[in-house]
Give the backbone structure.
Amino acid sequence: MQLYKRLRREYEHGLGSIRGVAQKYKVHRRTVRAALKNTVPPRRKVTPRKRTKMTLAIPFIDAILEKDFKAPFNQRHTAHQIWGRVQIEMPACDIGESTVRAYVRIRKAELDVTEQQTSSQAAAAWMMEVLHSGAALRVIEKELPSGAASSLVGFIKGGRFRERKKALAVLGRLRGIRTAVIARCLKMSRRTIGRYFSRFANGGLNALLLAKATKPNDDPERDQFLFSLLHSPPSAHGINRTSWRMDDLHRIMAESSHRTSRKRIRALIKRAGFKWRKAKVVLTSNDPEYHTKVGVIKQILSDLKEDGAFFSIDEYGPFAIKRKGGTKRVGPGEDYVVPQYQKSKGWLILTAALELSRNQITHFYSLKKNTEEMIKMADLLRAEYRTCRTIYLSWDAASWHISRKLFSHLEEVNQQAVQDGFPIVKTAPLPAGAQFLNVIESVFSGMAKGIIHNSDYPSAGAAKDAIDRYFKERNAFFVRCPKRAGRKIWGHERVPSEFSESNNCKDPLYR
């Protein structure tokens, strides 16, 4: 084929004559003419050879093969057995075994194609007649008078498509049609047809038409209980372990009237994005008073009125002002890299409080994380929410959040609060090691995703301006739309900003 291409190219764009092309490539002029006439070389003519010895044995072999096609597979002759019979029954015909093998292989393929076409056509015609003719069904009822066969006929008349295929497959087997033929007609595998017939033979019609078990409906209460278990230590449930096992989860859920399978528990954990081998994702608390503290916070939130406010307080940082990495779209062939070592342009510590019922942020910037900054935040919230009667401050178990100086200051201001027209300040500390319950963490995650990652601010002042604008727009948005709606970045935070034991507010991907 490559020679023909070179000959045509040389004739069309080179010498331009048949004689010249033939002399250059040292081929005959007939070859050049053939290349110009045909794209591929024509096949050589094969002169059929006379089979003087094989001619005598062909009728004998054909008779054996035709008889074999009516017999079961395990009773058919092999090529070696046919050659042995030829040697015994026709001693005058001296032919080799390889010659017999070659002929048997070709003849079996021809007979198989013919037999497949004939049997498939007959089976397809019978099945179409069964489907569309009432007379054929009456004939089947006479041939197969058993009750189960009659019920199969009833499903063919008025059953669903899947049930009709099952009934047809079983009726075809009962009628004696080969499994391979039924499989070709119904576009099913032979294994499936064998399984259907085995079910019908062992269990009857009910086993054949057994419906699949329905999947259990989603149970939000069960899912909530499962994730609350993952966020609490096993010791809180009387288990002498520091991490959860599947057997323990399954047992505790069953004892708490939330019975579900281990497979379902694994699916729920996987769908929620939890991974057993990473403690950063599946956070737990080892506080022995975990349930007591969580219960107090839930009770405060359930009894919170319009003249009350509940604040989730925490610090973000310190973080350096430099070029930050992240995930973003890049053009084809473009590399997105961030230098590992950079000169810092400054650093920031953000101290913020999130009011849960109004979804408003109050923030300022600190130089240190200490008790003075918490006192400053408490005084700022007292002044900003002066119209409230009681405000609750909730934070994690950091040392400057639970210092004596802070509590003594709160006691002092509470004594003069009613006289001076300020709200009473109460604390609702989170359990130790339960940062995932701090609701403001989800807001920090959304802020980092929106304005910290992929950033390159020229100075700390520029970063402050971006943060101030972010919280200003966020507060204005939730004043207009109290519900969490809209296409702002804070409406697409990876975890909802609400207090729940099953909620991991501290997203490790955006800190």
